[in-house]
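Structural prep section.
Before we set up the soaks we want a predicted structure of the protein with magnesium ion in place, mainly to decide which crystallisation condition to try first. Input record follows.
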Amino acid sequence: MSTSLLFESLSISAGQKENLKANGYLEMTPIQQQTLPSTLAGKDILAQAATGSGKTLAFGLPLVERLNPTAYFVQALVLCPTRELAGQVAEELRKLARHPGNIKVLTICGGQPIGPQIGSLEHGAHVIVGTPGRIVDHLRKRTLDLSRISTLVLDEADRMLDMGFQDDLQTILNQTPTSRQTMLFSATYPENIAQMSEEHLKNLVEVRIEQPPEKISNITHRVYKCERSEQALGVLSILTQQLPESAIIFCNTKEGCNQLSQALREDGIKSGTLHGDLEQRDRDQMLVRFSNGSIRFLIATDVAARGLDIDTVDLVINADLPSDAATYVHRCGRTGRAGRSGLAVSLAGSRDGRRLENINRENNLALEPKPLPKAAINQVIKLQSDLRTIAISMGRKNKIRPGDIVGALTATKEIAGNQIGSIQVQDFTSYVALPRTLADRAVEILRQRPLKGKPARARKI
Ligand code: ADP
Ligand code: MG
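Run finished without errors. Recording the tokens verbatim:
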């Protein structure tokens, strides 16, 4: 292990080094290694690296190191394309901000009532993580003051531009001091990003991390012949042959996601869908259920899945082949992470020849469609999840910790601690996974026991 890979080698506070260690961060990822020395020194950066490469820490560390806990004004702003991403980034920043401590990180996103946000802003925050549209709303209402920020981050900048946030970004940039440090992170590098960085970044350092070749070479790729009209049968066949613990299934459109989910349900396989048309709350819940294993199969569009920090899955299925080769790589990157082997299986119909050729050429692959194996219907039962998720109407803002939920659930001795699955505490809601057979009883127990002295609502989702 070369020492320059270690966080220890950076010029950051000793407290932060301890904090990183406590969070299990020892070695830097390539993007962190190549940006942190410059960004910690205050330089602007334009960085391009794939999803899952550790960009949050790359901008989070310089951002947090510069905060002054005793100065009560907004010192840093992170812009993200969606509320989920803002939530994930805020979560990560809170971990980093344990040193220096006493740092308030506030998320300000659309799709939520604006009144409580105004209240929270009045209370003061050191760091704001938000989506551009809503940040602009607050600037117009003068409920947010960015005139003294020292750090501005545009996370997933390419996607924010794709989503039409260009004007909002311009408005926001104009209300921040030119003395700020600007960090622009992007998974791709389109022309409009170049333009934007030329206009707004100074003394800029540019870093691009190419997807390392092993990233897709530790993945086994397979393609099966299957016409679009037989797509559900194709997916059923792959799932019953592979019996994966978890899988992400990609479709090119949201209608495709819904149809496939419906068809799989008719075959006895439960899946969740993730696409742009879902209510924010449903998207949040879907991600929670997928990450705790109470939904094993997630059917998603590229836009909805992009950038989300979903743990590595055993299997990626391309129910529809993507039209471009880079998207194929992005999708496959969801499996085989962290040195594990992965499997990516695609369905290709008679009209997909050009797409497959393109994917092969750009990625140096030689995939050939093979006949689809027969679906093993008697295996469907092995694809069910034994877990259910219970949502509880209290969260971090009610000072709930996972231990409170374990305490309540085990109080009657009917449920043992080791039967309780993953617990996620969010701002106003908490989620706990439990075996299906215990879920109803768990809901009753939770309804009868106050949490932090207050009765909570609980229900299966
Ligand atoms: P990106 O924004 O590039 O998609 P994230 O910042 O979401 O990636 O990081 C992906 C995952 O990797 C997160 O779960 C994060 O906690 C983890 N991670 C980031 N940096 C490191 C590191 N240096 N060591 C170990 N894990 C890391
Ligand atoms: Mg990210």
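Observations: The domain at 219-383 is CATH 3.40.50.300 (Rossmann fold).
Flagged for discussion at group meeting.
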